[in-house]
Amino acid sequence: MADEADSKMLVRETFPAVERIADDDLRAGVVEAWTIALTETGWDLAEVPWFPPLQEEWGLPNERTVPHVRDVVAASEALAAAMAERGAQLSTDLVRSGALVHDISKLYEFAPPDGEATAIHDLLGHPNYGVVPAARAGLPPAVLHVVLAHSQRTDVEPQTVEAEIVTRADRVAARLIRARSER
């Protein structure tokens, strides 16, 4: 298992969008959240599955969390930029930070190396547990809200423009995964 410094470097290399977070505390918090999750779970970041129950149902065993998170970040950034051009008052740092950690719970929901569901998946699930490493890393409530609100597995509705943007981007990215199974 990599040490903490190696994990932090891996997170920054895997998710280049981290470096586009202007706020030092948010940037450090995103990196720390992923570092906590990697350290606690023992996952190889590149191997974390996207969502094994649907992957099995859809016949897509090789879907991974990292490309999905990158897709959500890209879609979130594009939507935030378009809305900002139209005069929307929003924080691109919160959008980017929320998009980067929205699926951090996957490391806890599925056990390495084969992605077997854990009690966290079965009893708490996505995204309820994702707030734990994010909060422990010092990320603010606005980012934790994005994590909770992005999924239909909670009753938490997006209360901010930033949370709505990440929610919509996540749904589009998930739909693109599903589309691959329909080919």
Structural account:
Strands 1-2 form a two-stranded antiparallel sheet. The termini are far apart. The longest helix is centred in the middle third of the chain and has 21 residues, at 65-85. Helices cover 62% and strands 2% of the residues. It has 183 residues and is mainly alpha-helical. The protein has one domain (4-181): Hypothetical protein af1432 (Orthogonal Bundle). The protein has helices spanning 4-14, 24-41, 52-58, 65-85, 92-101, 106-109, 119-124, 131-136, 141-149, 161-181, and strands at residues 110-111, 116-117. The mean pLDDT is 95.
Any chance you could write out the topology, listing elements then pairs?
Layout (H helix, E strand, L loop, with lengths): L3 H11 L9 H18 L10 H7 L6 H21 L6 H10 L4 H4 E2 L4 E2 L1 H6 L6 H6 L4 H9 L11 H21 L2
The radius of gyration is: 15 Å
The largest sheet, given as strand count, sense and whether it forms a barrel, is: 2 strands, antiparallel
Q: At CATH's second level, what is the architecture?
A: Orthogonal Bundle
- What is the approximate shape? globular
Provide the structure class.
Answer: mainly alpha
SS strand fraction: under 5%
Give the helix tally.
Answer: 10
CATH topology label: Hypothetical protein af1432
Helix content: 55-70%
Strand order of the largest sheet: 1-2
Q: What is the number of beta strands?
A: 2
Low-confidence stretches: none
Q: H/E series, N to C?
A: HHHHHHEEHHHH
